[in-house]
Design a protein that fits this description.
- This is RPC5 polymerase.
- Pfam families: RPC5 (PF04801), RPC5_C (PF19725).
- The protein is α+β, with helices and mostly antiparallel strands.
- Among the domains are: about 120 residues; about 160 residues, no CATH class; about 140 residues, no CATH class.
- About 45% of the residues lie in helices and about 10% in strands.
- The chain is built from 30 helices and 18 strands.
- The strands form five sheets. Strands 2-8-5-4-3-9 form a six-stranded mixed sheet, with no helix packed on it. A three-stranded mixed sheet has the order 1-7-6, with no helix packed on it. It has a three-stranded antiparallel sheet with strand order 10-12-11.
- A hairpin with a 4-residue loop joins strand 3 and strand 4.
- Helix 11 packs across helix 13, helix 15 crosses helix 17 and helix 15 packs across helix 19.
Amino acid sequence: MANEEDDPIIQEIDVFLARSLLEKLYLFQYPIRPASMTYDDVTHLSAKIKPKQQKVELEMAIDTLNPNYCRSKGEQIALNVDGTCTDETSTYSSKLMDKQTFCSSQAASNVSRYAAAVYKKGELHLTPLHGILQLRPSFTYLDKADAKHREREAANEGGDSSQDEAEDDVKQITVRFSRPETEQARQRRVQSYEFLQKRQAEEHWVHLHYYGLRDSRSEHERQYLFSQGHGLAENTELIKSPSEYLMMLMPPSIEEENEKPMAPSNVLSMAQLRTLPLADQIKILMKNVKVMPFANLLGLLGSGTDPTAVLRCVQQVALLVQGNWVVKSDVLYPKDTSSPHSGVPAEVLCRGRDFVMWKFTQDRWVVRKEVAAVTKLCPEDVKDFLEHMSVARINKGWEFMLPYDEDFVKKHPDIVQRQQMLWMGIQAKLEKVYNLLKEHLTPKKQEAQSAHPLLVSGEQRVNMAKAKVKQNFGQLEKEFQRQKAEMKSNDSSAKPDVANIRIKEEPVSVEEPMDTSAHEALNNGLVNGLHPAQGPLDPVNGHLPGGCIDRVAQELKAFVSSTFKKQFVLTLSELKRLFNLHLASLPPGHTLFSGISDKMLQDMVLDTGCKQILVPFPPQTAASPDELKVYALWEAGDTYDQHRQVLLEIFSKNYRVRRNVIQSQLSQECGEDLNKQEVDRVLKVSFCSLW
């Protein structure tokens, strides 16, 4: 009340709503102009409009006699646009830029809040606006000038060439036949930017007549801004309460709501969902979840929902698989859609997904390769089908993601029977489409049961291995004692006091873990090059018995000699690998099973005439120490001994050498000119195991 007393009402004005120019009145916003220039004095040469697009073009004359007008600039622009010739197609017939075009654009998308007001004799007359257009200068004449410039350049270039060259210029023409346009392709074409631009360009211009501010026609049209009847009967919209009147005059803005970001399509608001009909709620839920038990579906729909109505609606959008509801294929792949991976139409996708669903009605497991072989679809589409309703299991296939719902099956036997009949019909269609065999129709329950025990956990495997060790330990111990007794009888001369010597034996523990060395597969049961249960030699206190060392040395020397005669250069790592392969090929009880150390192997390599090549590898190399030790046979007795020795000397100075350096060094040292093929042959023969 205090504020009202401070701001008293001075005058009350009657407000009238004029309807004569409803949906015809536009507000034009002109660009900024010089202060000395008013649009009342501007001559409008022409005007045209496209009503559907609400697009206007106005052509206004420019006062060339104004002292602010640059005449030389206007003549230059006219010359660039029209050239020297003057005809009906010229933009500036006076050879002077004496007019300018203005094009409109919509200033606001929603103009229902705006009106034009006229105040007269204590009355305010309002007329709603149909559009607000902003006029901006159009510079299409610059495009025309550029086109003229390109034409002149093309004419100049064409004039330089002779007439004969122009006649000889033959261009190849490619003829293409367009295929029939599909409905999906037509929809994409209609929604494209080029098509919309073409549609807008096809709308014809409607030419208008411009009447000045002081023209009699303008004065006549201006009278329509006033309400034709002041009676209250014709202005029933204003017989409202003050709040309703303000609401009509200033409706709430909806632009802010439109600017709010939309939620992702896969995110549901439960509050908005429950405002939809029950059938739409179930369809949206099943389309997003894809597989759901009936109890969970009832929980999402909220308390008080009739289960009978839910059952009636869910059967329209889902099928029963192992007591759970799976969304139908035609809901996920509507008509006139296609696969995002392969472009296959929706009908083919629905058949393939129905086949996967039907397979899960027969068994809990489905093999992806079998589905792909039957449906002939790409792997990405098949994977999408399986991910909708199953989970991948290693070494078994794809398992249905939910357990069998026995409660629903027991409570609703009529629904189950009806769904079984539907699946029988689907099976009959699939048999005709895919020509299914008996192996596809028969459930593989027995195979699944027989295959189940083969999947054993790691702990079970360890327990099984321990039990097997305990079972065979006694037999292995007897065999070991027998072989040890035979060895003692054969070497009694070298061990006169063998009865007084105590043999050191390590206890065997069943808790010892399995050996997982890198050479396990090559050793074939060897531990450090020795068969634990079949070795004929028994080291006594860590030493080999007399007479055995010579035999081991002879066998080892024979292996090293034969190996280096085949491969002249070897690393220690490669030599140990070949030695393990050699041991694996020997029969049980061979003398080399007594145990060969790395030092013994390297000493034997040097004794057979080989040399160690100290290759200067870079310090940051990732090679192991055994790979850095390189041994080579210095003299093999063939024609390439000298070449091989030169190569080894080269690589002892640098680990990486260019081919041309090797070629020049070989030619210099050996006194013969070697070509590229001969150098390659020398490298291949000498370093076949390394390069």
